[in-house]
Amino acid sequence: MKMENKMFSNNRKISGRQIRRLLFFDLAGLSTLLLPPLLSQTAGKNGIFCIFLALLPAYGVVLLIRKTSSRMVAGFPDYIRQTKGKVMEKVLLILCGASGIVLAGFVLDTVSRLITTQLLKGESYWLVSLLILILGAYGMAGGMEGRARIYEVLFWPLLIPLILMLVLACRDVNVDYWTPVFFCSGKDMVFGTLLVFLFYLPVFFLLFLVPYEKNYMQGIAVANRTLFLTALLNAAIYLITLGIFGEASLREMKRPVITLMSMIRLPGGFFERQDAFMVAIWFFALYALLNSSMFYGTESIKSLIGKKGNKRYVLLVFFLTFLVSAAFYKGGVMEW
């Protein structure tokens, strides 16, 4: 009987390893795809330093979460209501909900453009976007535990091919393209660092994971290591793309890491379209972030309204995410 109760108590809970892998996809998917040209436009060759400097404010966010999470085992909304009052609770929930929905809309626009330009060329953007959004809503229906288990399994099958391709790409790197450094202004360095920090901000949503953790300190324990691993991957991709394309070309490219994957030739030439497989890696990573941001947006709205039920909130976030994505697309924010 004790064994059965123990097993039952672990239902709907996620382990530290699952948190680490899910958080890694949330952090790395969008940043590795978009940061190289953005950093080249802002900090130039010094962008490599911005990647690691941005860890300092990100670690500050984790420290803040660490100080509060030990006192909010019941969840972030309850903690804010008990310590700051109902008004502050509603303000923070509105901000969190809006942030989750805007992020979900941006990710949906990004992955839809990626698919329609790389995998399904000429296909309707709106149809692809709608299908991905439906898939995202379906993923949310599996709950946090289901999504965590899926990405726990997918972690190495997705990461190992990426590492292999980056290692093969090192053969064509011209290290002269990495220098000179420290020739940009302090303002550009600060702007580049803040830019990278924006891509690290999904770590803030760890606050919403507390009720789902087997041990409420697990998420905090793995967050710093996951941030550092993400920074290492971003640094490797930035140095490789900079060393192959050069600063001037990198500034003009929209998705240099995908272009890089199409240029690499595997030994033996047995796999001619490995770029399509690599696009699939970014699709799964961006899909994980889409799921997460929609989930956190739903949780925020649910806590804000305070009524039971789940389908109505999922449908609301579904609709709002689609509107935000359409706004990004029509506004030409990401002209690929």
Provide a quick synopsis of the model:
The chain is mostly helical and 336 residues long. The chain has helices at 2-9, 16-42, 47-53, 55-69, 76-84, 86-118, 125-141, 143-169, 186-200, 218-245, 247-252, 256-263, 274-305, 311-331.
Mind sketching the topology for me?
Elements (H helix, E strand, L loop, with lengths): L1 H8 L6 H27 L4 H7 L1 H15 L6 H9 L1 H33 L6 H17 L1 H27 L16 H15 L17 H28 L1 H6 L3 H8 L10 H32 L5 H21 L5
Helix pairs in contact: 2-8, 2-9, 2-10, 2-13, 3-9, 3-10, 4-10, 5-6, 6-7, 6-13, 6-14, 7-13, 7-14, 8-13, 12-13, 13-14
Low-confidence stretches: 1-11
Q: How many distinct helices? A: 14
**Radius of gyration computed on alpha carbons:** 20 Å
Average pLDDT for all residues: 85
Strand content: under 5%
Oligomer: single chain
Fraction of residues in H or I helices: over 70%
Main sheet: strands, sense, barrel = none
Could you characterize what this model shows?
The protein has helices spanning 2-9, 16-42, 47-53, 55-69, 76-84, 86-118, 125-141, 143-169, 186-200, 218-245, 247-252, 256-263, 274-305, 311-331. By secondary structure, it is mostly helical. It is globular and about 60 Å long.
Give me some keywords for this one.
mainly alpha, 14 helices, disordered N terminus
